[in-house]
Specification:
disordered N terminus; Endonuclease/exonuclease/phosphatase domain-containing protein; globular; 228 residues; 25% strand; alpha+beta; Endo/exonu/phosph_ase_sf
């Protein structure tokens, strides 16, 4: 069961709701939602909901189709979200057999080809689990939302929340618009954090929570990301 919830999205600087979406889906496991402004203007955006195949070859076909679609609308805002059934790096999986380099390379090449930016997330770092515990537990970030540069320039910012899993082994994604300006900032360690009694224990828990990866460097990178 795959669930992606999309809050009502409006054009920036406008209080008008958008007209009902024109929706189409096909057997290649993608749903396209197209919306126009209520006043009949040509301003529009697309939302693509994806359920990618587990098979690498079949997934490549979907990525190829989406790349052609992206090239057909170079200046139109579009958002893509759903289950991509693959990860971008080893830090996005815990337990089980490490993802293949070809799978991760395919996905990263696709993201670059369509000019998408990961929207980030709030919540658990993983969106899928095999629902086992202990050494048998496998978790991964298979679901995500991404947008192109036109979306970033013309639409309101969005937030993506990983909701708690229910009967499914996937976490639903809640995509919402946020009318709060965000400013880029770099990470700066604050000395005052070290004075907190829980500081060392919090760092230790985060550090030890990352399992050993295929290389020491990858393990270190993942641990630093989690601690940050």
């Amino acid at each position: 069961m795959k669930r992606v919830a999309v809050d009502t999205l409006n054009q920036p600087n406008s209080s008008k709701d958008l007209t009902p979406a024109q929706m189409s889906c096909n057997k290649k496991k993608q749903i396209k939602i197209e919306k126009n402004d209520v006043d009949g203007s040509t301003s529009k955006f697309h939302i693509i909901v994806v359920y990618a195949d587990y098979n690498l070859v079949a997934r490549r076909k979907l990525f190829d189709d989406l790349t052609v679609f992206a090239q057909s609308i170079p200046n139109v805002p579009w958002l893509m979200a759903g289950d991509f059934n693959c990860i971008t790096n080893l830090c996005e999986k815990s337990g089980g057999i490490p993802a293949s380099n070809s799978s991760m390379q395919d996905f990263n090449d696709f993201i670059m080809a369509v000019g998408m930016v990961d929207a980030g997330y709030i919540g658990s770092p993983f969106t899928w689990s095999n629902n086992y515990t202990g050494n048998a537990s496998v978790k991964a970030r298979l679901d995500r939302a991404m947008f192109n540069s036109s979306w970033k320039d013309n639409m309101l910012d969005i937030s993506v929340r990983h909701l708690l899993r229910g009967v499914s082994n996937h976490s639903p994604l809640l995509v919402s618009q946020v009318d709060i300006p965000k400013y880029p900032s770099r990470f700066i360690f604050q000395d005052v954090w070290a004075s907190d009694d829980s500081f060392m224990s919090a760092v230790s828990v985060a550090w030890k929570g990352v399992e050993q990866k295929s290389t020491s460097f990858t393990t270190l990178l993942c641990r630093l990301r989690v601690v940050k």
